[in-house]
Specification:
GO terms for molecular function: DNA nuclease activity; hydrolase activity, acting on ester bonds; metal ion binding. The chain is of the alpha/beta class. The chain contains ten helices and ten strands.
């Protein structure tokens, strides 16, 4: 079986001591990956890492919404200070190579908005930087990798007005089938990760059941969101097989079928030969 982790961060500091070993472990297990940038430095590193490998390792470049203003963040298994950046088109154009297969992750994140008078200015800034990246993706004929948290109405409206008819993926999807369908209707794919394996709400099972097989993608979002049996430890691309197995279990099909389909889907969306 071949697997595709369409969203990982082996370019992050969590892998600084064993980056090459982690990637080798994935490739030896027939797992391909896209290392995703979240600001300038991690985007550059994603490209540098991808260049090392003749096959199976790709990059996405972009500015995550939490890096459009400074704040202290508590992600699962991670605590870090965000950086304040803007999306400078010329800087990102210098990163473009045949190894860059997407723009992102980009989008809107209203989960940690300030409660004071800065709230509206932060939302405005996130929207501005998101639109810049949509235009950049459109210009360079690249799909987008979308990060969205508590902001679906605004984000979908922006996609309709600024990115109509073009493709991308709703990364780390955790919402309802109703929201998933809105992305699908725009031509987007739905990506699922470790959250699927420990979701108790039943929402994601409904998403899996209703999303067409040719529009599903698998990802890890490593080093975060580790699935069982490694829960509580650092995630890595080779664990994407547990997402494949969970989708197969929910849809009552063989894992080989899900692996083949999601691998093919990734190659199609990201234009990988």
């Amino acid at each position: 079986m071949k697997y595709f982790d369409t969203h990982t961060h082996v370019n992050f500091a969590a892998f600084k001591d064993d980056q090459s070993e982690t990637i080798k472990r994935a490739l030896d297990g027939n797992t391909w990956m896209i290392n995703v940038g979240t600001q300038t430095d991690t985007s550059k590193l994603a490209v540098e890492v991808a260049k090392i490998y003749p096959e199976g390792v790709f990059a996405a470049i972009g500015l995550h919404p939490v890096h459009t203003y400074q704040q202290m963040l508590d992600e699962e298994e991670s605590h870090f200070q965000s950086r304040t950046e803007v999306f400078v088109e010329s800087d990102y154009e210098q990163m473009l190579t045949e190894k860059v297969v997407a723009v992102g992750e980009c989008g809107l994140d209203y989960f940690r908005l300030p409660s004071d008078s800065d709230r509206e200015s932060v939302i405005k800034k996130q929207k501005e930087e998101f639109v810049k990246q949509l235009h950049f993706a459109k210009k360079h004929k690249l799909p987008v990798i979308i990060h969205c948290r508590d902001a679906y109405a605004d984000l979908l409206e922006i996609l309709k007005s600024e990115y109509a008819g073009l493709q991308g993926v709703a990364h780390s999807f955790t919402d309802t089938w109703e929201i998933a369908k809105k992305f699908l209707d725009l031509g987007f794919y739905i990506a699922l990760n470790g959250i699927l394996t420990f979701d108790k709400t039943g929402k994601l099972a409904e998403v899996v059941a209703n999303t067409p097989a040719d529009r599903l993608l698998t990802e890890t979002d490593a080093p975060y969101l580790t699935p069982p049996p490694y829960r509580g430890k650092r995630n890595e691309p080779s664990y994407v097989r547990y997402i494949v197995e969970k989708i197969a279990e929910l849809n009552k099909v063989e894992p080989e079928e899900v692996a083949f389909q999601t691998f093919s889907n990734a190659k199609k969306l990201f234009n990988i030969r």
